Amino acid sequence: MRRGKLLIACLCAALLAVAAAVPAASAEANRLALTPPMGWNDWYSAFCGVSAQLVEQTAQTMASDGLRTAGYRYVNIDDCWMTPSRDSAGNLVADPTRFPSGIKPVADYLHSLGLRLGIYEDAGTATCAGLPGSYGHEAQDAATFASWGVDYVKYDRCNIPYGEFPGESPEQVQQTLYARMSAALKATGRPIVFSICNPDPGDDPWAWGAAVANLWRTTPDIADNFGSMLANFEGTVGLFRSARPGAWNDPDMLQIGNGGSTTLEYQTEFSLWAEMAAPLIASTNLATLSAADLAIYENRNVIAVDQDPLGKPGVPVRGAGGLWALSKQLRGGDHAVVLFNSTGAATRIATSARAVGLPGAPRYRLTNLWNRQSSESGGGIAAFVPAHGVAMFRITPLPSRDTETLAPHSVLSLSPHPGQIHFGELITVIVSFTNQGTSTINRLTLGFRAPKGWHGRTSRNYRAALRPGRTFRVAVLALAPSVGPPAATAALTATASYTSTAGRRVIGATFGEQLLAPTAATLPTAK
Ligand code: GLA
Known about the structure:
It contains twelve helices and 26 strands.
């Protein structure tokens, strides 16, 4: 059974685990990475094209575009930075064309900007790109890195000579070799974060990585598409018991900005990584990043969830059918809740304060960490979540009913006719609105719109008052156009406006995933 499926089967036990004791500090005890590391790495945008120029320009960008102040500190050089052989004394040598002055001046420059330098090596005889590995040179290489001013080492697992360890499993050999480098780094006396990279099946570094490292890869290399991101999420989310301050699960770097996913999918990636207390290492070209993608990396509310000092990863409280609810306990009693829709159609996802492990309270403040709106709930937590999207809330128990004036938490959803809509088809769309707050909603108006070319395109429905916990549901009939381009997407939109003690609020919901599948009879014929 795939790990993701197994995880879903085990969800009932997950809540109990929220209360399970987690050791307070990393066994590695180098007192580093007490919150998940944040920074940049060249790999997914430059691969073997890394250079001093790229690293220094990236550092300048980070210092000027707000990323450094948002918490991104490590600037990490991945594979391919060195020459194909060591020097006559056995030392590693930086590639003279790409790092003409070596690594130390690059580290000095980064340090002058208040940033830190990371570098890549490998526990075997060669790196994954075939350059010299640290096997048999651990102490020498650690000393080299310390003398250059390196602050972070990513240590890979390619080309390990397993044959030299008869009778030992690959996992045992890795433990030996990673422990060697861990001790060598410690012996330099320089604080160096140690990131191990051994995500192959059976390696299971989450079971033993905390004894030697600050973070360990849980899953294979991530690609810039939703399916790969989802696989790494599913392969990591169930490992929440293994992580703690100084010791983190690493589902690989962030692909946000590389162009293979939508802005919404990138928001999802960032939210899920923060919820899992994963390292936030941007692996993209920061100089050409769009404003929308930069805004994702700089969402301080979501970063605060990742960097929460309690260091507890989110726990899945539901995951059936690809609809997830995760809850991350934060210092001070708040929880960060992510409702994640991994399916291909927008839908409502609901849970409750109780189910996510919040203590009982007269009401709760919900702050939506993407649209930044706050509302109050009597305990229900729900959202209409687009396909591949998330709703992410920071939830605070409030001691009494009247301490703050907040709009009631409400959910507007649309459930069109299931399956594809055909040209010329009459469909029924249910628009429903639920008041999850603790006070009555007044002057509620629900609106519905279908795209141009439809009949019954707009509709309005009015309700004087809606008490807490109540739902107002209307059915709308809409007739799809009889002809149109093949495989068009119909964006069916609902809006709700209402007043409460907090004033007037308007919310919207869109269902845009239904494809119009023209039949032969309704397709326009070529003349
Ligand atoms: C492995 C790692 C990647 C990257 C490359 C470099 O594939 O998992 O993150 O470091 O090696 O060769």
